[in-house]
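JOB MANIFEST
job_type = single_chain_structure
chain_count = 1
residues = 503
[input]
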Amino acid sequence: MKTKTIALALLTAVFLSACSNNTPAKEESNTNNAASSEQGTDDTAATNEGQAEPVFQNVSVHDPSVVKVDDTYYVFGSHLASAKSNDLMSWEQISSGVMDGNVLIPNVTEELAETFAWAETDTLWAADVIQLEDGKFYMYYNACKGDSPRSALGVAVADNIEGPYKDLGIILKSGMWGEQGADGTIYDATIHPNVVDPDTFFDKDGNLWMVYGSYSGGIFILKMDPKTGMPYPDQGYGKKLLGGNHSRIEGPYMLYNPQTDYYYLFLSYGGLTADGAYNMRVARSKNPDGPFVDSEGKDLIDAMGAYGTTFDDASYAPYGAKLMGNFEFTNVEGEPAGGGNGYVSPGHNSAYYDEEEGKYYLIFHTRFPYRGEEHEVRVHQMFFNEDGWPVVAPHRYGGETIGTYEAKDITGDYKYVNHNKEITADIQQSALITLAEDGTVSGAVTGTWKLTDEHTAELVIDGSTYTGVFLREYDEGTLSYVITFTAMSAEGISIWGSHVAAE
């Protein structure tokens, strides 16, 4: 079970870039770094000797939402695409493409005819699947016209996670210009939501909720009936959490952390395309319906564009702790050469807590430097720093377990990335820094570093303090295991370091 009003001409640009491609982009899978099927754990900061390379099998699922059934992880996304994996590294494509014959909804054109007719489209956007009390699987689907917030959000049910799903009907509609919306008032795209990007989840007390929304009037949350999978009546569009005035904020996803007792609301800012500046952010609350604040204590209800604007990124860029944006780790002279090692417009994530292993994972799609609009699923391990904020491992998950390290394991040269708080299509190129034995940091930035406990990292860079972890990971860019660090400041800025690998 998943623990999981401006001119129409202006809106054309807004919604074509929101939430999902209108057509699938490279949905076929491919294989990278195929090696031994065994993956050692990271109990010590050992050398590469005796540790097998992880096996990665890549797939394309835009806007992946994760759910685990028995020992298998599934991701469902846009364009009726889905995939599965037993280890979060090697993925198998299950389905792709909104067409009759798709195993998830075999007669999709007839089954969802009302949805397509309302949204004036022939494709679907970001799906979300959850298992409810009756043991059945509920898929929350959505379709959007693309050049306006005319959308429909509904639910279908199946006995098996891989389908076939049977439609139960539309839950919400949006984009009804000049007509009443779900709350009984005239629909206004600056204050009412675009009803896409659902994430349905249980809170710690077993109550069911759905958080959703994209651009337009912002992100909203609804109370749901766990017996029917439908919203409780008389809620309208639900409670607004943030956004509005066509701010580029979408893809909400909720994760509860039992250690910190916070609900973490993950969001994607910017546009999904390779030049769209997608980046992932997070805010938290003690309650599933907020209020949500960032690491500086700012209430995200104020994260919106200025009145009368569209895509006013500067207004909301300061809100939300930023986890990841565009970056590239550039190999230095003497390092072994591997594949490319960077992301472009990573976003629309889901997240998962594996209670048995005590591991947190961030699952998202990303594009890549120099590869255009091709996109694939990526999984990174995630940790929570001393202040209770998530920090994301710099490299994709390769089966690693955080270990106990000594100062001698940490010292040396690192490729350093600062993700800053900007919403920008620029790629943050890594710079070279050194963590010296005397606890100083030199090179592209200056400051101090410290290893506390078994793996806790504290770095003071140019006067700002960052806390996080040190972690030994597999680096695809050098085809080797290296020490890394990931940390976040109180200002909500994330920094990464990846140790320069020996030839």
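[summary]
The chain is about 5% helix and 40% strand.
Confidence is low (pLDDT under 50) at residues 5-17, 22-49.
exit_status = 0
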